[in-house]
Fold:
Amino acid sequence: MSVSFKGKKFYVKGSYKCLEVNNLFISDISEIKDLDNLKSLKRLELGGNSFKKIHGLDNLLNLEELFLDSNKIAEIEGLENLVNLKVLCLNSNKITEIKGLDSLINLRELELSCNQINEIKGLKALNKLVRLNLSMNKIKNIEYLYELPNLKIVILSYNNLSISQLKELQSHRKDLEIYFFINGRNWDNPIEKS
Structure:
């Protein structure tokens, strides 16, 4: 396998039928190309780069963990073929809308903190989702969270939410751990659990 950095582009050269790479971390790049031969790749870390679009991942069918945090991504796209994905991290991007996740039916953890998301939607197909981080966005309504049957942990700190909304969510979903920080301290759930 030959890896070269030319003009901040990443290339994997050669035709390898049994190349096995389980974990790959790439930094200081602006575009991904030619990852098609890494079919056994399980974990890919591309955080801290300058991507504006998600592309070039179509053939990574065995990918289970994808980290695209701290880039310049504005839209969730290009993930349709990654049906085995279990962890997706898109923290610290420029995402305004949750969409493009319908095919990720095995997703268990979704990180979307530090974006510009106004509304929780586009998660209905994610029945296996256990952990959701939406802190530091612009969310005003959390009723959609009632519909995620396996959600156990939700992080909602630094959004436009009220304590009454959190209490309402907790009354409908007593098994849900809600993390919402107020003045540097976690909101204490006043609802008694049975």
